[in-house]
Write a structure and sequence with these properties.
The structure holds 2 protein chains of 2 kinds. By secondary structure, chain A is mostly helical. Chain A has helices spanning 5-25, 29-53, 58-89. Chain A is built from 3 helices and no strands. In chain A, helix 1 (5-25) runs antiparallel to helix 2 (29-53). The longest helix of chain A is centred in the last third of the chain and has 32 residues, at 58-89. Chain A is elongated, with a radius of gyration of 17 Å. Chain B is mainly alpha-helical. Chain B contains 19 helices and 2 strands. In chain B, a hairpin with a 4-residue loop joins strand 1 and strand 2. In chain B, helix 7 (169-200) packs antiparallel against helix 9 (226-246), helix 11 runs parallel beside helix 13 (327-353) and helix 14 (362-397) packs antiparallel against helix 16. Chain B is globular. Chains A and B meet through helix 1, helix 2 and helix 3 of A and helix 6, helix 7 and helix 10 of B.
Chain lengths: 102, 539
C-alpha cells in the first residue's frame, strides 16, 4: 500500500496522544518532558506531511525546522529547572513539589 | 527573474523591515552588550541596570518615532514585513511602546528592591529583555509560526525568572510546575497550529478566514464538513496554549503557584506583560479567523464561548482570592479575574465582528479593542503598583502575608496610599483609571448584547463580579488602615526614592481617571489601534 497523507497524519496523532498520556501519567519530571517532546514531534510529522501533500509547501518544513531548534532550547531550560528542583528537594518526582497548593 | 526577486526582498528588508523592527533590535543589542559586559568584567564598573535602562529607553524612543510617523500619516496603514512573518500597524506599535515603558518601570523596581543582586543582574536582565522581545513579537505576529515562536520566546525566559530565587524550595517548585505545564500547553498549541496550517495550506493569519471559505466550497462553513471540523479542533488546541498564557479557567492553576514562588517583581512583570502580549495575539488570531460571511456562524459561537469562559474565569478568580493569606497569591487570583474582564472585550469584538450588521458597527468594534488596550494600560500601573508595595514591604518584614501589612499606615503612609489607589482602581471605583477601563469594556459588551442575548449574561456576570471583588480587596485595606500593627512585625522605614517610585505609579493610576485630556487622548489612541488591527479584513 502506498502511504498517503492520512497515514502520516495517523502517525502524528499517535505520537501526540502518546505524548499527552505520558505528560498526564508520569510522575517523574524527566518523563513529563519526554512526553512534551513526543507531542512536539507529533506536530512535526504533521507539518512535514502537509508540506509534501498540500498547498502548505515548503512552509511546513520551515515550521518543523524552527520547532526542532526550539524544542532543544526549551529542553535545555527545562532540564536546568529540573536540576534546580533536584538540588532543593533531592528528587525529581513532581508530586513531591507540594509546598504550593495550586 | 530570481535575482530580481532577491533584490526586492533585500530592499524591502533593509528599507522597511529593519526600521519597523528597530525596537526589538535595540533590546536584542542590549542583551548582547549585557552578556559581553559580564565576559569582560565591565559589570563591576558600570551597573548592569544602567545599560538595561538605556536599551529599554532606546527601544521606547524608536517605537515612539514609529508611532509619531503613523499618526502624522493620518491614514491608517497595516503592512506585513519580513516575508509576511510580522505586521506593522498602530496596534503593534502601541504594544511596543507599552512593553518598553513597562520594561523601564520593572527595571526601576528591581533596582529599588535589590532583586537581583549585582552578581546576578546581567543574567536576570537578559531574561527580562528576552521575554519582552517575545511579547513584542506576539503583538506583531502575522503568521502562525510567529505566533508559536512569540509565545515560546516569552515563556522560556519566564520559566527561569520564576525560579530565579536560588536555594528556595518554593521558588524551584514554582518554576518546575510552570515549565511542565507551560511546555505541555505549548506542545498542544503547536499540534493545533499544524492542523490549522496544514488543512488551510497557509500559515498567514490574515488569510485564515479566506481559506476556510475555500475549504467549505461555497457553502456556509459548518462542523458537518470534516475539514472544517479539523480546523475547528486545531483552533481549539491553539486556544489551549493562549488560554494558558492568559491564565483562563481551566488553564489557570499554574498562576497562583508561580506567583507565590516567584519574587514579587517577577510576578508583577508576568501578570502584566505576558497578559498584554497574549491578548494582542488573541485579538490578531480572532481577527484573522473572522471577516467572511461563511465563517460568521462559527465565529459568533466562538465569541459566545469565550464569553462563557470569561464569566467562569472572573467568578472563579474572585471567589478563590477571598481565602488567600499570601498577598502574591491573592493578587494572582485577582490577575485571573482581570484576565476574565479583558476576555469579555474580545468576546464582544468577535460577536459584533461576525454579525450581519458588522459594517454598521465599525466604531463599536474599534471601541471594544480600544477598551481592551485602555484596560491593559491602566492595569500596567495599578498592578505593578500593588506588586511594588508588596516587594518593598517584603524587604523589611521578610514576609508577604496579609498580617505583615497590618497597621502599616502608622509607619509608611506613602505605601498605604499607593495601595489604596491601586486597589480602588482594581475594583473599578470612580474616578480612578480602572473605572473608565471597566466602563469601556462593559459598554462594548452591552453593544454586543444587542446582537446576541448571551452577552447580557456576560455583562451581568461582570457587574456582579465587580461586587464580589470588593470583599477581598477591602480586606487588604482593612488590614493596612484599621488594624493595630502587631508587636512582632518589623517596622517599615520607607526611603525617599522608593516612596517616590510608588507614588508616581499611584499618580499615574489616578491621572488616568482624573485628567480628562489624558483619558480622552489615550482612549482615542487605543481606538485608533483597534481600527488598525481590523484593517486586514477586506484590505
Amino acid at each position: 500500500m502506498q502511504p498517503d497523507l492520512s497515514s502520516y497524519l495517523f502517525i502524528g496523532a499517535v505520537l501526540f496522544v502518546c505524548g499527552v498520556i505520558c505528560m498526564a501519567t508520569k510522575r517523574n519530571a524527566i518523563g513529563v518532558l519526554m512526553g512534551v517532546e513526543l507531542v512536539l514531534n507529533g506536530a512535526n510529522v504533521n507539518f512535514v506531511a502537509f508540506s509534501k501533500y498540500t498547498a502548505l509547501g515548503l512552509d511546513g518544513q520551515v515550521f518543523s525546522l524552527f520547532v526542532i531548534v526550539l524544542a532543544a532550547a526549551e529542553a535545555a531550560v527545562a532540564l536546568a529547572i529540573v536540576l534546580n528542583f533536584y538540588n532543593n528537594h533531592l528528587t525529581v518526582d513532581v508530586d513531591r513539589g507540594n509546598k504550593l497548593k495550586g | 527573474m530570481f535575482s530580481e526577486l532577491l533584490n526586492n526582498l533585500i530592499n524591502n528588508t533593509l528599507d522597511k523591515g529593519l526600521d519597523y523592527f528597530s525596537a526589538e533590535l535595540w533590546l536584542s543589542g542590549t542583551i548582547v552588550v549585557m552578556l559581553l559586559m559580564r565576559l569582560f568584567s565591565i559589570d563591576r564598573l558600570v551597573p548592569t541596570f544602567i545599560v538595561g535602562l538605556i536599551g529599554a529607553a532606546a527601544a521606547g524612543w524608536c517605537s515612539f518615532g514609529q508611532f509619531a510617523d503613523l499618526i502624522a500619516a493620518n491614514d491608517p496603514v497595516s503592512v506585513s514585513f519580513f516575508g509576511g512573518m510580522l505586521r506593522q500597524d498602530l496596534f503593534s506599535v502601541f504594544f511596543r511602546i507599552f512593553l518598553s515603558l513597562f520594561l523601564i518601570l520593572t527595571i526601576a523596581l528591581t533596582v529599588l528592591t535589590g532583586i537581583p543582586d549585582n552578581e546576578d543582574a546581567p543574567d536576570f536582565y537578559t531574561l527580562l529583555f528576552g521575554a519582552t522581545i517575545g511579547m513584542m513579537l506576539m503583538a506583531s505576529a502575522n503568521n502562525l509560526l510567529m505566533l508559536f515562536l512569540g509565545v515560546e520566546m516569552a515563556s522560556v525566559p519566564s520559566y527561569v525568572m520564576v525560579g530565579f530565587l536560588k536555594g528556595r524550595k518554593a521558588s524551584s517548585e514554582a518554576s518546575l510546575k510552570y515549565v511542565v505545564y507551560g511546555a505541555g500547553a505549548a506542545g498542544v498549541m503547536l499540534y493545533g497550529i499544524s492542523l490549522v496550517a496544514g488543512i488551510l495550506g497557509t500559515g498567514d493569519m490574515t488569510l485564515l478566514a479566506d481559506r476556510i471559505r475555500v475549504v467549505a466550497e461555497g457553502g456556509t462553513a459548518g462542523l458537518g464538513d470534516p475539514e472544517v471540523r479539523t480546523v475547528a479542533l486545531g483552533v481549539m488546541l491553539v486556544m489551549v496554549g493562549l488560554a494558558f498564557k492568559l491564565s483562563l479557567v481551566p488553564f489557570h492553576f499554574w498562576c497562583p503557584d508561580a506567583f507565590e514562588g516567584a519574587s514579587a517583581e517577577v510576578a508583577g512583570f508576568l501578570s502584566v506583560a505576558s497578559k498584554a502580549g497574549a491578548f494582542a495575539l488573541l485579538v490578531r488570531f480572532c481577527v484573522g479567523l473572522s471577516g467572511v460571511p461563511e465563517t460568521a456562524n462559527l465565529m459568533t459561537a466562538f465569541g459566545v464561548g469565550l464569553g462563557v469562559i470569561a464569566i467562569i474565569t472572573t467568578t472563579y478568580g474572585n471567589l478563590a482570592a477571598y481565602t488567600q493569606n499570601n498577598l502574591k497569591r491573592l493578587l494572582a487570583y485577582s490577575t485571573i479575574a482581570h484576565a476574565g474582564y479583558m476576555l469579555m472585550a474580545v468576546a464582544a469584538m468577535l460577536v459584533m465582528l461576525n454579525s450581519d450588521q458588522a459594517a454598521g458597527l465599525g466604531k463599536a468594534i474599534n471601541y471594544s479593542i480600544g477598551g481592551l488596550l485602555y484596560y491593559l494600560a491602566v492595569y500596567m500601573f495599578m498592578n505593578l503598583g500593588a506588586f511594588a508595595v508588596i516587594a518593598l514591604v517584603r524587604n523589611y518584614t521578610f514576609n508577604e502575608d496579609i498580617d505583615s501589612f497590618k497597621g502599616l499606615i502608622s509607619q509608611s503612609p506613602a505605601l498605604c496610599i499607593t495601595m489604596l489607589v491601586c486597589v480602588f482602581s482594581l475594583i473599578g471605583i470612580p474616578p480612578f483609571g480602572g473605572f473608565f477601563a471597566k466602563l469601556m469594556i462593559f459598554a462594548s459588551v452591552y453593544q454586543a448584547a444587542q446582537i446576541h442575548w448571551a452577552m447580557y449574561v456576560v455583562l451581568a456576570a461582570g457587574a456582579v463580579n465587580t461586587i464580589f471583588s470588593l470583599f477581598y480587596y477591602v480586606r487588604i485595606l482593612k488590614a493596612m488602615f484599621l488594624e493595630e500593627r502587631p508587636a512582632n512585625v518589623k517596622s517599615v522605614p520607607l526611603p525617599a526614592m522608593e516612596g517616590y517610585y510608588v507614588v508616581v505609579l499611584a499618580v499615574m493610576v489616578a491621572l488616568l481617571g482624573f485628567l480628562p485630556q489624558l483619558v480622552n487622548g489615550l482612549s482615542s489612541i487605543a481606538n485608533e489601534a483597534g481600527n488598525a488591527v481590523l484593517l486586514v479584513i477586506g484590505g
